[in-house]
Amino acid sequence: MTWILALPELVLAISGLIILAAGVIPKRDTFFPVSMACVGALLLTAVLVLGQSEGTALGGHYVADAFSSFMKLLAVSAAAVGILLSLDYNEKEGLARFEFPVLMLLATLGMMVMISANDLLSLYLGLELLSLPLYVIAAFNRDSGRSAEAGLKYFVLGALASGLLLYGSSLVYGFAGTTNFDRLGEAFGDPAGVSPGVIVGIVFIITGLAFKVSAVPFHMWTPDVYEGAPTPVTAFFASAPKVAAIALLVRVLVGPFGDLVGQWSQVIELVSLGSMILGAFAAIGQRNLKRLMAYSSIGHVGYALMGLAVGSDIGLRGLLVYMAIYVFMNLGTFAVLVAMRRQGRAVEGVDDLAGLGRTDPVTAMWMAVFMFSMAGIPPLAGFFGKLYVFLAAVQSGFWVLAVVGVLTSVVSAYYYLRIVKVMYFDAPVGGLDRAPASLSMVMAGTGLFTLLFALWPAPMLAAAQTAAAALLG
Amino acid sequence: MNAVGFPLLSLLTFLPLAGAAIIMSVRGDDAVVARNARWTALWTSLIVFLLSLTLWVKFDQSSAAFQFEEKLAWLPEFGVGYHMGVDGISVLFVLLSTALTPLCILASWEAIETRVREYMVAFLILETMMVGMFAALDFIVFYVFFEAVLIPMFLIIGVWGGPRRVYAAFKFFLYTLLGSVLMLLAILYIWYNTGTTDIPALFQERIPPAAQTWIFFAFLASFAVKVPMWPVHTWLPDAHVEAPTAGSVILAGVLLKMGAYGFLRFTLPLLPEASATFAPLIFVLSVVAVVYTSLVALAQEDMKKLIAYSSVAHMGIVTIGIFTFNQQGLSGALFTMLAHGVVSGALFLCVGVLYDRVHSREILRYGGVASIMPAYALVFMLFTMASIGLPGLANFVGEFLVIVGAWRVNPWVAFGAALGMILGAAYMLWLYRRVSFGKVTRADLRALLDLSPREYAVFAPLILLTLWMGVYPQSFLSFFEASVAALVQRHEAALGAARLAGM
């Protein structure tokens, strides 16, 4: 009866199938009720995750611990907010098809499998279950050339990444004779006796996952896909799957390859440095908000990976806190982006925000909160995210990471400030349409979280601490 | 609990936010909202000021300890707590912040016509951050307030500033941020090495001399930009020129003091050896700042820019005083900080009075103002004289003490500071002559009205303070005597211990 441990995934899978079937039957438009049902299913899953006990199940393929609960809650709530973001947009853009939320739900199921993976095979299964729906929703606006291009690009590069990952896995399997994380950990307990082939395998696995988290130097698809995909899909891409892929990267590296930290730490350090630098400099010239956010997300992944490169429990705690804060402020930012419409047409240029401080002060205020937070200015949440990863880096003597991290955060402050400048200092160029209620709700919720995180940070830190401890055992 | 039985400092810090919340919740047409915003902001800041007078009355001047302390768990497992309190060094800066804010709001009464509500909200948030920064007794809490100041100030310069406001706002923000993040790394280093960020607890720790050097430069990066010291002062003239009058007042009056306060609160007590080692460097930078910026001030055509450069020169005298490490120098530095806060703030207000009427800050645009606006000319002269350091007015006491303190360390440094005072007399008098005296060459100036009752209300407290500080400085000096003595003693003890260890 160990499968009962995987109850959240089972419930989510079954409800996804039921909702899909239920969506087909009626003749009329079922987008809204199906979306609500999907949000409901995700909430139910979140409750089940909260009540989940710890242990391994399904022949060692599945593990549930404090780390998986933390990351799953994050991914599930990000997915639920993602569905909310799409409600109004899809209606207006003619994308209101019931398959959309169901695909997001199935992708979320893939994320949960990834987060709980305890075997290279279940890892791969989860990753593919996540990726396939993502390819489809990236191209969901099939009449738009950009959207189709985004979907295709994402598919080709994603498939390549999966191939690299599989190749790495097979190398590791060849040297260890097992794909189970626990037994891999035992096999690689002594760093001295590990063959270089295993290291090559690990590097391939890192490469495959770096594609998914869009870290430098495997980030090239990100700006194009983010720009081309429908905005709510971009919002979803930048939040939930990122959480899951980071979780997977952390679990693989710290779990089975934990004793080889000396081997992979350098790789992650380079990836982190590259991401921070590229994210800071490449975004400066962007005039399209979605492209800008793509580079910004590359930068943020760099900061989060700093925590992994450090490898200590403080570092992992920093990473978890960073991801949690990032997801919320990112969803808030995208809520503003999704709401940007002028006379019914979606706009996405930085200049389209001009004078928003006068035409729509509330939206502008939330956007300013998110921008200052992303730049890491206290007392907003983003500062605390950076604080904990920098603390970990300083503590373990990773001075290069820490110094480059703070300097790039100053550089990136420039383009976040530019958005504030456009909203507040520039004259309005014809107001944007009023934001629909669902988006205002998301903005207010995530905005309040970002604004008030400083008042009561202890619970989130404690949860992250427990999760990090669970992983390091 | 503390001397007054309720969390006074937290109240002072966060009450302005309540005012801001009230202002934001008002709905109606623009005129109603603007009037409401002005009055709410004024009353909030006045109430905060009156409350802060409790500090003046109840502060125990004989003690060097932190008073009015408050402690709350914030991140208990990390040794970071919400800890507030003031000692002789910080108490008067809390008062300076709470006193200047209502004056600034009053000074912006008519000058700010667009987006009044947002302006007042930004000012009240700014007050929260300033008071919180001076009252914070935890390094992380301090850093949060120290950095958060940037957000409202960025908006104040950028939204309500002059023609080059965008450039000035970005320069201000990025310059200061770059300095601060380096300090953040130093804070993190101290944090994990000592396991605490509580300032009184940190005073008991000894940081190894090798690490002190790096931490010193990280702190210097942050505080030198804030002070600002030569050669990282270039953001200040831009920010001052473009900021609205009240923004300049707060910038000169309070924000520049944050850097000097950082030196006093952190660099000196935490890094005694490094401070002693690098004091000559600070002296050189300060003397260069004093002389160089005074000369630059002589060449300015813009009144605000001139006063901005004079601020850099005055702050150079402050940093000289801080790094003399003796009672006179430190007391003088603190006194100069206060006096400069009042006097340069008042000078910016003086410029604002002319700017509101003529909409030009160009010196050559004026001339003969004394015959048209006699009362204004008198006020302007008083503050000009104070800025020069005329005995009997505020600046004299502080600068004199700094020179005495510097003389004990190195006569050449004292000479440099004195040279700054002489040059200061030159550019300020020249400014005053060109604006106030001479023939009225421009017809439109003849129609200028003298000070309005509102402007009298703004200047009266500043005039009183300037005279008071000049005539009876003891009532201010006595606040920081005990704390400065303790600081000097701790510094010497630490150096003595280091010397013993070295033998």
Automatic annotation (TrEMBL), chain A:
Record domain NADH:quinone oxidoreductase/Mrp antiporter transmembrane: where: 117-411
Cellular component GO terms held in the UniProt record: endomembrane system; plasma membrane
Annotated membrane topology: Multi-pass membrane protein
GO biological process, one term: ATP synthesis coupled electron transport
Listed EC numbers: 7.1.1.-
A Pfam family reported for this protein in Swiss-Prot or TrEMBL: Proton_antipo_M
Transmembrane regions listed in the UniProt entry: 6-24, 31-50, 70-87, 94-115, 121-140, 152-176, 196-221, 233-254, 266-285, 292-312, 318-340, 361-381, 387-417, 437-456
Database matches in InterPro entries: NADH-Q_OxRdtase_suN/2 (IPR010096), ND/Mrp_TM (IPR001750)
Entry annotated with the keyword ATP-binding: no
Record's keyword terms, sorted: Cell membrane, Membrane, NAD, Oxidoreductase, Quinone, Translocase, Transmembrane, Transmembrane helix, Transport, Ubiquinone
Catalytic activity reported: a quinone + NADH + 5 H(+)(in) = a quinol + NAD(+) + 4 H(+)(out)
Top-rank taxon, per record: Bacteria
Nuclease as UniProt keyword: no
Similarity annotation: Belongs to the complex I subunit 2 family.
NCBIfam families: NDH_I_N, PRK05777.1-3
Subunit composition and interactions: NDH-1 is composed of 14 different subunits. Subunits NuoA, H, J, K, L, M, N constitute the membrane sector of the complex.
PANTHER family for the chain: NADH DEHYDROGENASE
The protein's name in its UniProt record: NADH-quinone oxidoreductase subunit N
Lineage per the UniProt record: Bacteria, Pseudomonadati, Pseudomonadota, Alphaproteobacteria, Acetobacterales
Chain's gene name: nuoN
UniProtKB/TrEMBL annotation, chain B:
UniProt superkingdom: Bacteria
Domain NADH:ubiquinone oxidoreductase chain 4 N-terminal: 42-130
Its membrane topology: Multi-pass membrane protein
One cellular component term from this protein's GO annotations in UniProt: membrane
Domain NADH:quinone oxidoreductase/Mrp antiporter transmembrane: 136-417
Keyword vocabulary terms for this entry: Membrane, NAD, Oxidoreductase, Translocase, Transmembrane, Transmembrane helix
GO biological process: ATP synthesis coupled electron transport; electron transport coupled proton transport
Keyword Cell division: no
InterPro entries: NADH4_N, NADH_Q_OxRdtase_chainM/4, NADH_UbQ_OxRdtase, ND/Mrp_TM
Presence of the UniProt keyword Magnesium in the record: no
GO molecular function, one term: NADH dehydrogenase (ubiquinone) activity
EC number: 1.6.5.11
Subcellular location: Endomembrane system; Membrane
Regions that span the bilayer: 6-27, 39-59, 79-107, 119-136, 142-160, 172-192, 212-232, 244-264, 276-299, 306-326, 332-355, 376-406, 412-432, 453-471
Any Pfam family matching the protein: Proton_antipo_M
NCBIfam families membership: NDH_I_M (TIGR01972), PRK05846.1-3 (NF004499), PRK05846.1-5 (NF004501)
Family designation: Belongs to the complex I subunit 4 family.
Protein name in the entry: NADH-quinone oxidoreductase subunit M
Taxonomic lineage of the native organism: Bacteria, Pseudomonadati, Pseudomonadota, Alphaproteobacteria, Acetobacterales
